[in-house]
Structures are given as structure tokens and as C-alpha cells.
Amino acid sequence: VSPKQKAEVVELIKRSTDDITLAVGDGANDVGMIQTAHVGVGIMGREGVQAACASDYTIGQFRFLTKLLFVHGVWSYRRLCKVLLYSFYKNICLYVMELWFAFHNGFSGQILFERWTIAIYNVLFTAAPPMALGLLDRCCSAETMMRFPAMYKMSQNRSDFNIKVFWTWCLNAVYHSIILYFMSYAMLRHDVVHSNGIVFGSHLFLGNCVYTYVIFVVCLKAGLESDSWTFLTHIAIWGSIASWFLFFIIYSNIWPTIPLAPEMRGMAKYVFSSLYFWLGLLLIPITALLADFIYNW
Amino acid sequence: MPGQGETEEDHEQQKSKKPADTAFKQQRLPAWQPIITANTALPVFLIIGLTFIPIGIVLVITSERVLEHDIDYTDTNCMSTTAANTTCAQALENANYTGQTCTCRINFALDKSFDGDVYFYYGLINYYQNHRRYVRSRDDNQLLGKEGAAASECQPFQKNSTGSGKDYAPCGAIANSKFNDTLSLLYGSENVSVTNVGIAWSTDKAVKFKNPDNASNYFTSTHDKPPNWKVTAWELDESTSENNGYQNEDFIVWMRTAAMPTFRKLYRKLLRNSTFQNGLPKGDYTLVVTYNYPVTSFAGRKQFIISTTSWMGGKNPFLGWSYIAVGIVCMITFVVFFILHKTWKIQNRPPM
Lengths: 297, 352
Prior knowledge:
The complex is a heterodimer. Chain A is mostly helical. Chain A has 2 domains: 58 residues, Rossmann fold (3-Layer(aba) Sandwich); 223 residues, no CATH class. Helices cover 65% and strands 4% of the residues of chain A. In chain A, strands 1-2-3 form a 3-stranded parallel β-sheet. The radius of gyration of chain A is 25 Å and the shape is elongated. Chain B has one domain. In chain B, the strands form 3 sheets. In chain B, strands 1-11-4-8-7 form a 5-stranded antiparallel β-sheet. At the A-B interface, helix 4, helix 9, helix 10, helix 11 and helix 13 of A face helix 2, helix 4, helix 7, strand 8 and helix 10 of B.
């Protein structure tokens, strides 16, 4: 069979079915087939490295193919889906809140959060959880996946990422943002949240409270979605939350030594000294995640 | 298990290409694999329910104990003492009365004594201090007392372009719209002793607001007062120099723009001496208002608020009721799933 014929067989299958094709080969005459298939697997070894160079995945022996598919293939599929859905979710959850705040600021376009805290949201505070999900998450151990090859089916039937799943996550994000914003708004509406009668003033006070709750909810949601908690997952989740607290404290103290963020000066002191903030921290993230917890159960 | 990508022949020559056989790189990290089962979830709901409901009850009771008295003095309550049958709101609008200040006296009674520390606030309704253009209309460098031109964000309240050409001090829409009613209380015929110290954020007062050097010259000669102000910043509290100019606490309180269109700001605190040692006694009071601040053009309302506080803050039962509500939901969930679990013996998913 010539290389061109091999490639044409794969092409025929691709065109006549909707299926994803995989081709595995070890010689130079397999290169065409490997490149035509959706997923090309090359075996590096006796017949040289051409097949390996042209392929998406390279393995050392033919028998490794089962592990590649049943373990790493499924893991990779599930991880990718989670990372994608989670990334949409966490951004929708945060930014839709600007819409809710718009109802209260005359639709003037005033943002609820300070601009650098928004910018650093994806870079620092919620960067680690999707990485933990994408690199480390697994539904079952490698041995189990090999023992029950039927589990491969869950990556074949688009169960983890389809239109319904996507919109469910988006609606979930909107639901969380509604709870987070409106409960915080109602909690802080009367302006006096310290025992010494001081008025907290500033939409940023509300913004920082809400932002803290968002970080909690979003990071803990990553934990809920995670099927396996390694120590790195713990670091990712609790570390992200801690990094926000640390940043908040530092950022609230730099003006006017550093000519940046005058509106944040003193925020950490007044937010952390308000019992409303802490009581809200206990109540609001739990309320938001209750439904998710039940659903996962 | 051998790492991928190696063969027996390569092993000796290309040791460096073999991926490290660590738990991290070979995806063998030990992990806790939480599977939410009835045995783990049910206690969670029970614990949440049992802790949240008492917390909620405590919070609701605490909030109920806070005493508050509001007086809306926007229009009909506040009748001018000088012009007959005119509210101060109308007097402010009426060209005949320009230049004259309107005062009014409102009698009210406290039917309970307000024990402990008592705080006096002015409240505004339908006032969007959180509007984007308004929020940015300030110059924090100027408020630090630094030299330099007023920032362009302050426009159109940056400088007196039609008159002297001097910068406004303080510049910006927030400063220009500073609340300037005077509110005082009489208990019978006695003045209720109040203080205006400690009403602003301590960090604002200590760090964000500083008077420039040679303040008197700064505020009266080199800069103009904002167009809506009746006095310059250097006349805000001439008796106390730490409370004058930019460091005036009423000014600082005003500059911290409220989060919502219905808000209150701390105006004065009760000074607890002689008659008011234990707070505000029960009885008849009179609120004396010098009505300077116009709100009727945007359907705003003004209030005078007397309030005590609890160990948490002001009067807001929302948090308490939310705790109770969430606690009840958790208890109901617990009961429902407990019954389901026992009667139908829902199987756990097979362990992975």
C-alpha cells in the first residue's frame, strides 16, 4: 500500500463520517496518513524518526497507544473542557457585576472595582486554579482508566463540552454574580458598618467586599469542579485567595508614597475592621455555592 | 512504569532525553479525590443550618436594638421662619430671597431614650455620587496640598475661566457640591452638645488631605473658592486650624463619594456631658436647619438622621434574615435528602 493510498483511506473516512480519526504508524510511508488524520501518532524506533516528526504525538512502542488514548486522551479532553468552561465562567461572573452596578449608578459607566484590581484578576488572583485544573485534574487514576476501557466513551460523546454545558456554565456565572452583588448591596446599603458610626462611603468599599467574595467563590468553584485535589491544587486555590488579601493590604497603603490609587488608601483597614464584611464572607460565598454543591452531589 | 518516548537502545546514549520519573511529571501526584456522597454532604448541610440560624437570630436582634429616627426636611416639614407660608425649598428657588439664608425649626419627640453613643447623619436620596463623571472630578494631588495646576479631570470646575482665571481650590464637581446645610438640635431650650471630630476616615484625615503651606494666602489670593461655595475653604472652621481648609472633616466626609444614590454621611457625634451623659434622653426636641442646599431640581430629598450603633454598625436586619433564610434552606435540604437517602437508599457511586 503506497503512502498516498493510506492517506486517501483516512480521507475517505473523514469525509463520509463525522468522526474524529486517528492514524498510527512507524515508517516514512505512514507520514501522509498521519498528517491527514485528525490525530496522528508516530512510533519512533526501528524504521526511523520520520513518522515521529510528522505526528502530533510520538510514542516509543505500539503498546503505549492504549495508555495514550485511554489515560492521557481522556484526561486531556476533560481537562481542556474544564479549563475552557471555567475561564468563561470566572470572567462572566466578575464583569456582569458592572451591569448590576449600572442599575445603581444611573448607567453612567462607573465601574465597581478599582481598575488595577480588575486588570490583575486574570493575571494573578484567578490564574492558578485553571492551571491546576488543566495540568493536574483527573477523574480516576491511570490504573483504573486502563482497567475499564469503556470509560473512554466519555470523551467520545462530547459529554463535557457542548452547547448545553456551555450555556449552563454561563448561566451559573450570572447566577453567582447576582447573588454576590445583590446580597452585598443589601448588606451594605445603610452605609454604617462600623461600631463607631463612621460611614464607609465609596463605591470601592462595596467593590472590594464584592471582589473578595468573588475571588472566594471563583476559586472554590474550581475546587468543586476538580476531581482530584493534589497539594498543588490546594496551593492554587488557597494561594490565590491569599494573594488577593496580600495585594489588597499592600495596595491600600501605597498612596501618596507612590502616586497610584489614591482612592484605595485606607480601604483594607476599613474593610477588615467591619464585621459586616466578615459575616458576609461567611454567608455570601456559601450561599452562592450551595446550588453547585447540591448539583455536584 | 517506563517514561514515554524511550526505547531499549536509546536508554544508554540519550539518558538526558528521558523525562524525569517524578510524581509531578508522570502525573502520579497523590490526590484527594472527593466524591460528594450522602455521608459527606448531609453533615455539611446540617452544620451550616445549625450554625447559621443562631447567628442570624443574634444579628436580627442586634439590629432591632439599634434606634434610629429620621426627619425628612426637604420641603413641607421645613417652613421658613422669615417668609410666611413658604417652605425653605421654595425660598431657595425664589429670586426674591437671593442672598438671604432660610432657617426653619422642626419639632419632634423621641419616645425612647437613645442610650450610649449617638450619631447624627444627614441623608440624601436620589443623589448619584457614584456617577462616573462625578467620581473622577477631583484632584487628589491638590488635596495633598501640592503645588501645581488643578487637574483637568476637575473640569468644568477646574478654574474660574470666566472671571479671574485662577484655579478653584478645591477643584472638581465633588468638592463644588459640598453639602452646606447647618443642622443643630435643641433639647427643649438647651443645645445638644455635639462634636465634629473623628467623623471622617482616620486614614483620610491623616494622609490624604493636607493643607498647603501658607494656606491663608493660597485659599484667599492665589486660588478661588468653588462657584457654589459661599465661603472659601479657609473659612470652613476658623476656630480650629486642624479642621480648616482641606483638612475640614465635613469636607473630607463629603469627598468620600457614596456608593449608592440613597446615602447618609456622618455629620456630628453626641458629646456626652451633663444632660447627655448617657445619650439622648426621651423627650421633645427641635431641629434647627439653615437650609442652603438645593435638591428639588433633581427630585432629591434631604434627611436628618439620629442613630445609635451596635457592635456591628447601623440598623440593617438584612444580614440577620439572610443567615436565617440560608440556614433554613440548608436544614430543609438536609431533611429532604436524609429522608430520600434512608428510604430509597441512594447508592454511592463506585469508588474510583
